[in-house]
Amino acid sequence: MSLPAWRIIREKFPRAKITALVGKASAEIIEISGFVNEKIVVDRVRLRDSGKVWSIGQILKLAREIRSKKFDFIVDLHSLYETNLLGFFSGATYRLYANRENRSLDFLGNFEPKPPREDKTKHLTEHYLSVLEPLGRTENAERFVKLRPRSADFDAVESLLQNYNVAGKKLVALFPGAGHRSRRWSLENFARLTKLLSEDKTLQPIVFLGPEEKNLRAEVREKFPAKTIIFDGLTIPQFAAALSLAQVLISNDTGAIHIGAVVGISIVLILDKRAPTTYLPPTDKLSVVRSRTLAEIGVEEVYTATRKILKNKETRG
Questions:
Q1: Residue 207: predicted pLDDT
Q2: How far apart are CA 140 and CA 133, in angstroms?
Q3: Helix, strand, or coil here: 106?
């Protein structure tokens, strides 16, 4: 959701060497965008879960690396304690920090004027763009960025698909994982949904499993229809390429929907009615099923939303 902000930074500084400090999950999407020259990747999950001594050592190493780059300008879209401190000790002449209500040391920023105070009712993309308002007005900036996956990633996915009889079939992508259990529609529901979809012989369901879901492969194989394809070893760019070949993505509220959005796939999102919507991708191809709590949302409701998208695609030809 920060891609529109990255695009503005590139437009404002077309000749600058831009470096992105990004999490591991976002790094390859940022690279594909072409908005940055280089990236520094931080594995925040490993830092969180590893021993304190090792993690502190890695943070100090990161601080030294950032300082060695001799940056002129730091833009901190997230404005967390740790990123504010990294920016402050970087030695950069100018520091533009998001103006957050808490979990922030934004007083360490020195760019004037400061961005407006964070408005938590706004969509996250709007928040990121508001951080850049001191650089110029952003109200007319495009709120969505669409990316085309690289040829090498298409080739890798098509090579995998050659192992299956998918010629002439419409691919339906399913992502049953999510970072937190509270955001996961049950695997049994996904299995029943896949069975319904498989009754249409023109469709080919593909279940995608990320690194956190690899342990589900045996269970997916056991519970899902026999002809379901399972992909669990793709890189993020390959995953993006695979999604762009599918007709629709059915997913929990997780990173998969954001990757799907930037490559232009239609999405059926299964979302608890109590969940916030300020983090959803700003695409007009998003259909949200959130009539009830996640546990109460039925298979038939998600199936109906999926069939509607498929039917609309058939009508448009």
A1: 98
A2: 11
A3: helix
Domain 151-316 has CATH 3.30.420.10: no
Place of tokens 């990320």: 210
Amino acid residing at 194: T
Q: What would the CATH number be for the domain defined by 3-135? A: 3.40.50.2000
Are 305 and 269 contacting, i.e. CB atoms less than 8 angstroms apart? Answer: no
Check pLDDT > 70 for residue 317.
no
Query: How confident is the model over 82-120, as pLDDT tens digits?
Result: 899 999 999 999 999 999 888 889 899 999 999 999 998
Cα separation, 186 vs 299, whole angstroms: 10
Q: Over the Cα atoms of the chain, what is R_g?
A: 21
Residue pair 108/97 in contact by the 8 Å Cβ criterion:
yes
Please list the residues that pair with 207 across neighbouring strands: 174, 230
Q: Which positions ≥6 away from 133 have C-beta within 8 Å?
A: 115, 116
Q: How far apart are CA 99 and CA 62, in angstroms?
A: 24
Asked if residue 74 has pLDDT above 80, the reply is yes
What are the boundaries of each domain within the chain? 3-135, 151-316
E strands present in 158-298:
170-175, 203-208, 229-231, 248-251, 266-270, 286-289
Q: What is the mean pLDDT of residues 197-221?
A: 94
The answer to whether 143 and 22 have CB atoms below 8 angstroms apart is: no
What is the C-alpha separation between 12 and 168, in angstroms, rounded?
45
- Contacts within 8 Å (CB) and 24+ apart, 78-85: 79/104, 79/106, 79/109, 79/131, 80/104, 81/105, 83/21, 84/108, 84/109
Which pLDDT tens digit goes with each residue over 170-181? 999 999 998 778
Phi, psi of 20 (to 5 degrees): -105, 125
Closest CA to 275 of 259, 258, 291, 256: 291
Angle at 151 between CA 148 and CA 155, to 5 degrees: 125
Please state, in angstroms and rounded to a whole number, the distance separating the CA atoms of residues 309 and 313. Answer: 6
